[in-house]
Target: TSA: Wollemia nobilis Ref_Wollemi_Transcript_13766_1217 transcribed RNA sequence
Amino acid sequence: MIALANAGFHAIAPDFRGYGLSDQPSEIEKASFVDLVEDVVGLLDAFGIQKVFVVGKDFGAMVAYYLCLLHPDRVRAIVNLGMPYMRPGPQMIKLETLPQGLYIRHWQEPGRGFADFGRFDVEAVVRNIYTLFSGSELPVAEDGKEIMDLYDPSTPLPSWFTEGDLGMYSNLYEKSGFAFPLQVPYNAMFRNWSKLGEITDYTIKAPTFLILGTNDYVLKANESHINSEMLKSDVPNMEVKFIPEGSHFVQEQFPEEVNKLLVGFLNQQL
Model:
């Protein structure tokens, strides 16, 4: 946000419902990505802003993509990190093609992820997420094991993620808990498609800038999709940039490089 402000932009970074310092929704199990899209629209309306650049990371990128589908008139361009566009619907990710022990499959079972996390204190969960998901391989548990069983307290944090960072994130999750973050995105990813309404055109028409680290496990799992003709057709005005040695948390690992790319792309759209 500081880099954007120094470049002359205004920046807004809200905590979505169920995250950080925001309130928890009353019926978490019914929440979907569309609710988060409407949060963004409501925030823009409250500020009297008609059209914005949107920046998303990981599943926040899906909120940006869905904002383009549902409210294309509110988006000037989007910048997404770590997540290529996938057409929403049952065909988006076929669960049966994923490894049995992959966290995405585990967390489809109601309460499984919550119970897994509940065996550890919040700081251990956050520490494990940053150590596991900063690697280049998909975290997969053995048969009969849970994702948090991969936790090894002796594993050091990534060099770019400090104990202070860990404490800050842990304090936020102490307040919000993990129920909503497990519902959206993981459960909602395969449900509640009807909330998207009567969309007939799933093309992302806004200028799109996708930033990926070369060591991001998402890149390795989706490389064929990222290079596919389908993605080029679905996002015709897309530029992709790869950051050497970058992990799934590339914006924290290489903030100066990401900021330079972000500001440069936004300036091109003015």
User: Anything to note?
Assistant: The chain has a mean pLDDT of 93.
